């Protein structure tokens, strides 16, 4: 049984799946962190892998950029492959002044300008929140290993190139830690299907200060976030 976007056989994914936006980051995570990792899907080069971490099965798959792409893959992973713990490991642009490049943000909630959660919630405002158990495990593990994380609200934007630069000030006033493009959609998909989701982000840019990692660093430089996530959840 395959889906329009995933050509893996039934049972090819673990219950826990890490979800970077970039399929090459999925490959990097599989090669660097998983034992016996095998590529289980490659439709459109959206690579997915399953292996083990400390003996436990784990999958990792790219989602592409933006809520529509992420929603397709996560819906198929849940409905057809039984994935029930979906953990986005992404990058974001920081908003708050105290945040630095390479910092780790755990998205407790995700605001958005996307209409997807209103579409699935009778046009009401849906509070897109992380699964508390996944969140607690990652935050507790960070505390016990002295890894600094920031926990709070992020903004999942439809536009990477947002023309209205005044919005940034408003985000800062409202305490938005960082801007990315998928978390609110992921949380909506998870809620609709009754499964658990979390988003952990590494700061790749500072939107207010105009600082940025290189594209190589974005692809490969998220070791601390991945280690924290795997160690906390396995
Ligand atoms: O690094 P990823 O996980 O792709 O996340 C961020 O990077 C992309 C934009 O460059 C968007 O997908 C955004 O959410
Ligand atoms: O979506 C994103 C990701 C990184 N940096 C941004 O400014 N936006």
From TrEMBL:
Domain of life: Bacteria
Annotated positions binding a purine D-ribonucleoside: 5, 180-182, 204-205
CDD domains in UniProt: PNP_EcPNPI-like
GO terms, biological process: purine nucleoside catabolic process
Keyword vocabulary terms for this entry: Glycosyltransferase, Transferase
Keyword Transferase: yes
A GO MF label: uridine phosphorylase activity
Catalytically driven reaction(s): a purine D-ribonucleoside + phosphate = a purine nucleobase + alpha-D-ribose 1-phosphate; a purine 2'-deoxy-D-ribonucleoside + phosphate = a purine nucleobase + 2-deoxy-alpha-D-ribose 1-phosphate; uridine + phosphate = alpha-D-ribose 1-phosphate + uracil
Function field: Catalyzes the reversible phosphorolytic breakdown of the N-glycosidic bond in the beta-(deoxy)ribonucleoside molecules, with the formation of the corresponding free purine bases and pentose-1-phosphate.
PANTHER family assigned to the protein according to its UniProt record, in alphabetical order: FI09636P-RELATED, URIDINE PHOSPHORYLASE
Subunit and interaction comment: Homohexamer; trimer of homodimers.
NCBIfam families with a match to the protein in the record: deoD, PRK05819.1, PRK13374.1
Protein's name according to its UniProt entry: Purine nucleoside phosphorylase DeoD-type
Upper lineage: Bacteria, Pseudomonadati, Pseudomonadota, Gammaproteobacteria, Alteromonadales
Gene name in the database record: deoD
